[in-house]
């Protein structure tokens, strides 16, 4: 059976692309017009507000209306069409757009009562190689949407604005808040995405054979070579950031599991939340800083040895020195009506016991007194009492006296009692 050629199955619709239509579309949308400036300012304001209030839906709204894609497209078009004036004009519009967006985001941040970092902002301060890959794919989709008429042109703004406007606005937020590291990392993300979009759109436009002259390709080849080199250079730190991000993400999960396993042994009511990890360079080595908020019952304590055991487990799993910081918050339960009744009866039992103990032996004191309520199969309530007393002469507390004490307490309280009594001798030590 003869297999048909791939060219007969798959139609190359790139040959149908009109160079004139593509150039006209990009030129019209890439001009520095009043409508362009209004869209840019609006997108900057909406995105900045969405970032400040930590609202992803608002941020997405700013992404969609952003026109920042068009100057980048115009640079790609100038490269493929060998038009230096297109490239120069597009770069000027792009620089003006960056300036306007930064000013708008800084102004909104300055007058906004909400000033602080949140998850939406922090997400744009950790650029990785994954972000670059997303920008490359988005740029390819945007280029295709312009070349092929049956693909909606709205895909360009949706696909690209995601990678451009938010990090640019975060840069302005960081400048106002006095956080240069936030501004630097977010602007690095913006530059990486912009380069990726220009590069991949140039390749997509170059794929159409009617877009350029094969005899005069000096500018195009030189520009693509420069863009390729810049993409490779910027990929190196992004790859390092990706490794760091991957380690931190894995470390958070491992730290959460270890903290839960160790602390739940102390009390099942302990809650571990907001676990964070960071790699800190100290001296010639690296230390993993692990912090967590721990909700702990009022009657539970975490001692030094328990904390050191947790640190040793973390260091074994993470294979690095660990600095553990636990922020403890005491949990206080609200007493119910049954709790108040239990406490009242407990105090009655203590009062009866305190009154009766001196008759059992001299110099007798209550050390611990625990009371718990339990219900049997016949739905009859009873009280379990665990009491530890101390005395100078434990021989005086006989079994008969103990039985008399239990009988006396039952008569006075009219309760079913299961009584456990332990006696500790008082020993006087003199020099």
Describe this structure in words.
With 431 residues, the protein is an alpha/beta fold. Helix content is 61%, strand content 16%. The protein has helices at 6-9, 19-29, 34-52, 56-65, 69-80, 84-111, 119-122, 129-147, 154-177, 180-207, 218-266, 304-318, 337-360, 399-413, and strands at 271-282, 285-297, 321-331, 365-375, 381-391, 417-425. Strands 1-2-3 form a three-stranded mixed β-sheet, covered by helices on one side. Strands 4-5-6 form a three-stranded mixed β-sheet, covered by helices on one side. The longest helix is centred in the middle third of the chain and has 49 residues, at 218-266. The termini are far apart. The mean pLDDT is 80.
Instruction: Spell out the helices and strands N to C.
Output: HHHHHHHHHHHEEHEHEEHE
Report the structural category: alpha/beta
Number of strands: 6
Q: How large, in whole angstroms, is the Cα Rg?
A: 36 Å
What characterizes the major β-sheet? 3 strands, mixed
Task: Supply the key terms.
single chain, 431 residues, three-stranded mixed beta sheet, 14 helices, 6 strands
Question: Outline of this structure?
Answer:
The protein has helices at 6-9, 19-29, 34-52, 56-65, 69-80, 84-111, 119-122, 129-147, 154-177, 180-207, 218-266, 304-318, 337-360, 399-413; strands spanning 271-282, 285-297, 321-331, 365-375, 381-391, 417-425. It is an alpha/beta fold and 431 residues long.
């Amino acid at each position: 059976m003869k297999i048909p050629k791939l060219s007969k199955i798959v139609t190359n619709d790139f040959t149908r692309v009109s160079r004139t239509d593509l150039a006209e579309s990009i030129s019209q949308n890439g001009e520095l017009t009043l409508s362009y400036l209004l869209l840019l300012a609006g997108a900057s304001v909406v995105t900045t507000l969405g970032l400040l209030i930590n609202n992803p839906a608002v941020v997405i709204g700013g992404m969609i209306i952003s026109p920042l894609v068009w100057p980048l497209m115009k640079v790609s078009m100038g490269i493929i069409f060998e038009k230096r004036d297109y490239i120069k004009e597009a770069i000027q519009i792009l620089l003006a757009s960056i300036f306007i967006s930064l000013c708008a985001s800084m102004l909104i941040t300055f007058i906004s009562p909400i000033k602080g970092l949140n998850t939406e902002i922090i997400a744009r301060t950790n650029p990785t190689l994954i972000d670059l890959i997303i920008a490359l794919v988005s740029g390819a989709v945007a280029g295709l949407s312009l070349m092929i008429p049956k693909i909606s042109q709205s895909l360009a703004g949706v696909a690209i604005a995601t990678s451009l406007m938010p990090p640019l606005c975060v840069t302005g937020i960081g400048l106002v808040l006095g956080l240069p590291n936030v501004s630097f990392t977010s602007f690095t993300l913006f530059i990486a995405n912009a380069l990726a979009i220009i590069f991949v759109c140039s390749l997509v436009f170059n794929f159409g054979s009617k877009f350029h002259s094969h005899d005069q390709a000096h500018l195009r080849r030189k520009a693509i070579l420069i863009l390729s080199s810049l993409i490779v250079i910027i990929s190196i730190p992004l790859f390092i950031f990706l490794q760091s991000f991957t380690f931190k993400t894995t470390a958070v999960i491992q730290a959460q599991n270890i903290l839960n396993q160790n602390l739940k042994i102390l009390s099942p009511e302990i809650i571990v939340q907001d676990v964070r990890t960071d790699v800190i360079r100290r001296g010639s080595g690296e230390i993993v800083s692990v912090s967590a908020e721990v909700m702990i019952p009022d009657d539970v304590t975490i001692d030094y040895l328990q904390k050191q055991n947790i640190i040793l487990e973390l260091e074994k799993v993470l294979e690095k020195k660990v600095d553990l910081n636990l922020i403890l918050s005491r949990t206080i339960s609200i007493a119910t009506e049954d709790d108040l009744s239990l406490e009242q009866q407990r105090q009655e039992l203590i009062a009866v016991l305190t009154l009766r103990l001196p008759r059992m032996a001299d110099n007798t004191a209550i050390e611990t007194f625990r009371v718990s309520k339990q219900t049997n199969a016949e739905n009859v309530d009873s009280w379990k009492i665990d009491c530890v007393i101390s005395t100078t002469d434990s021989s005086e507390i006989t079994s008969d006296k103990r039985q008399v004490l239990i009988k006396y307490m039952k008569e006075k309280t009219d309760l079913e009692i299961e009584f456990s009594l332990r006696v500790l001798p008082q020993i006087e030590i003199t020099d």
